[in-house]
Design goal:
It is built from five helices and ten strands. By secondary structure, it is of the alpha+beta class. The strands form two sheets. It has a five-stranded mixed beta sheet with strand order 4-5-1-9-10, with no helix packed on it. Strand 6 and strand 7 form a beta hairpin. Helix 1 runs antiparallel to helix 5.
């Protein structure tokens, strides 16, 4: 029995790593880290768009003129309520942060497909490396805040490629972080280790078989 275990354990590990590698390959590596998707349930009456209020060290972005694009897109300037909002360190992402561009939005109390999408500047720095808490602000066409959700904690990606989706429903909000391992760590390395263990299991089995034959012949 002990002899069989020495073969079965590496063989099972090899199969497990093989399945893990194949699953990651089939699951794909299409992770869109360049966009922040938002999905909505209930929104206040009069809602035209939604913004993410983020708790940030805003001194890092002094001098950024983000109003030039997102502000023009929404027809807002620095005098609107959203642009002036700053409570407990929270402020507007789309009007204060240079890494986010509002690319698409559709919000209406009568719609069942309320959503928005922000384009993010990709690079070595993840947007949520410094942002650890968020809220969502529902706004009308003039940038007046109609409602703000509860606070949600952000779990940034320590390893791998992150894809973020914010889900807001009335006062509730959560941020899903979907992480994909890099191709080497998720597919290549498990396949190599699985292959090594599989070969090791075969070698052990062959040696034990030869040893058993030798013992019988000596008898």
């Amino acid at each position: 029995m002990k002899k069989a275990v020495k073969v079965i354990i590496p063989l099972l590990l090899a199969i497990g790593l093989g399945i893990f590698s194949v699953w990651n390959y089939i699951d794909g590596y299409v992770v869109d880290s360049s966009h922040l998707k938002m999905k909505f349930g209930e929104v206040p009456a009069g809602t035209e768009f939604a913004d993410i209020l983020v708790k940030e060290d805003w001194h890092r972005y002094e001098g950024d003129d983000v109003m030039s694009f997102n502000g023009q897109l929404l027809g807002l300037d620095g005098s609107c309520e959203l642009a002036k909002y700053n409570e407990d360190g929270y402020a507007s992402l789309i009007l204060k942060h240079s890494l986010a561009v509002l690319e698409e939005y559709k919000l209406s109390p009568d719609s069942s497909d309320n959503h928005a999408c922000l384009g993010l500047e990709t690079g070595d720095e993840d947007l949520f490396d410094h942002i650890h808490h968020i809220k969502v602000a529902y706004c009308d066409k003039d940038g007046n805040i109609l409602g703000i959700t509860d606070e949600a904690e952000v779990k940034s990606a320590v390893f791998g490629m992150p894809e973020y989706t914010i889900k807001a429903d009335g006062s509730k909000v959560e941020l899903d972080t979907h992480i994909k391992l890099p191709f080497f760590w998720g597919v290549v390395l498990p396949a190599i280790l699985g292959g090594i263990l599989f070969i090791a299991a075969i070698i052990i089995a062959v040696k034990k078989s030869q040893k058993a034959k030798t013992s019988k012949s000596e008898e």
